[in-house]
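Slack export, channel: ligand-projects

TW: morning all. Re-posting the request from yesterday since it got buried. We need the structure predicted with the small molecule present, not the apo form. The ligand is zinc ion; the SMILES is in the block with the sequence. No rush, but it would help planning for next week.
GE: picking it up
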Amino acid sequence: MNIEIRRYKTTDCEKTAKLFYETVHSVNARDYTEEQLDVWASKDIDFEKWNKVFLDSLSIVAVCENIIAGFGNIDETGYLDRLYVHKDYQGKGIGEKICKTLEGFVKSEKISVYASITAKPFFEKQGYRVIRENTVERKGILLKNYYMEKRISMLAYTYEDSGKFVLKEKQVPKILNDRDAIVKVTLGSICSSDIHIKHGSVPKAVKGITVGHEMVGIVEELGSQVKNLKIGDRVAVNVETFCGDCFFCKNGFVNNCTDKNGGWALGCRIDGGQAEYVRVPFADTGLTKIPDNVTDEQALFTGDILATGFWAVRIADIKPQDTVLIIGAGPTGICTMLCAMLKNPGKIIVCENDSGRIEFMKKNYPQVITVTPDKLKDTVIENSSHGGADVVFEVAGIKDTFKMAWECARPNANVIIVALYDEPQVLPLPDMYGKNLTFKTGGVDGCDCEEILSLIEQGKIDTTPLITHTYSLKDIEKAYELFENKKDGVMKVAIKP
Ligand SMILES: [Zn+2]
Ligand SMILES: [Zn+2]
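GE: finished. pasting the full token output, ligand included:
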């Protein structure tokens, strides 16, 4: 159906007034009594007054088959006054078209509307949220409606240029694809990958994008093809977006999803979540519902560093009685350790150089052997039955840690490389000959979020000790300062929009 939207003219006055009367008395009749409908839209319409309201505001009509099928108006402050669609033209996308056009007229930070009981679901679908219930009195009769708002602009931390992130005012993201969701971020975090972007060491990062890829939030708007979610769901956002249909997705290798939005896109190639709202492509695979009794803080790392640790352990094949070595007690190292604990290995050794992190380990995980690099080899020998660790996770990614990893492994061990290196590493095959090691490398295939959240719910994984600091989004600059310079014993910073 062809819908033409044009500005309101005085000649539309009678037709729109009649449409208003008929719509209220038919469409709204299911939610209001006749008495209420009569005071809302009375038979004797003051056309002059009606016309003036529309001429004094930004008013449009929708024309279908030469008939005025709907109309709406908004003022410059973003107050959406009226939006009505003819009773015979409902459910054809006309209301949505009018709404979007009106929203496009104003430059205000938000749009507000008093929606009837009947119109509330429509406005919810357009991304409006109920702020409060309201009662209007007309000629002594009370009518219930809802005061609703939709945010148009928001704060977003932006990758401006190499070495420069800036907190900016941006448009709230819109659904671009049927499989998208808009998520209102309720808690986010800063990851070391964000720092890599800031310093220009992530070549695929696009300047101008909003950074941030670790967050949880509430589903605010959904594309028409999203199947497993509903508006209002609390969700953990996956660092990777993936189609679920390609060869790699079907085999669980979602990091290599071949879709252009596949893999690590959020906060790198497309706008991320150090903002008030984020658009998530492939919402059905990229968002996981958070169980009711799991808090935002508990769920915060599900989609990124915890998914990374979980994936690393999944491919490591840890057996009971194994000695597991983890190099690096940063946030990802600790997440890897927490996931390794689920396999009940004989011993876990964590190697760390930073005194603050060693202290953190000893305080929170006294059951783990924490050791400095100079004592590593001896400690591993002392604590393993076959001359080295059975499984090694390299999560540090700094000078010499790769060498440490394979040297501390026993023959035939699995060495899992989780770290992201800034420089090439040497694989000295002659020295390794006969040791018959298995190396596994890569970036997380983040497709276990549901299982991770279930383990959190059961109390089997708890990453909340990692949140050592919390900042509001408007103070994110300070949060970066702290995180980047590893001040004040920081592990992870939570960001509250
Ligand atoms: Zn990350
Ligand atoms: Zn895919």
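GE: first-pass observations. The radius of gyration is 28 Å. The chain has three domains: 3-147, 153-304+447-496, 307-441.
TW: perfect, thank you
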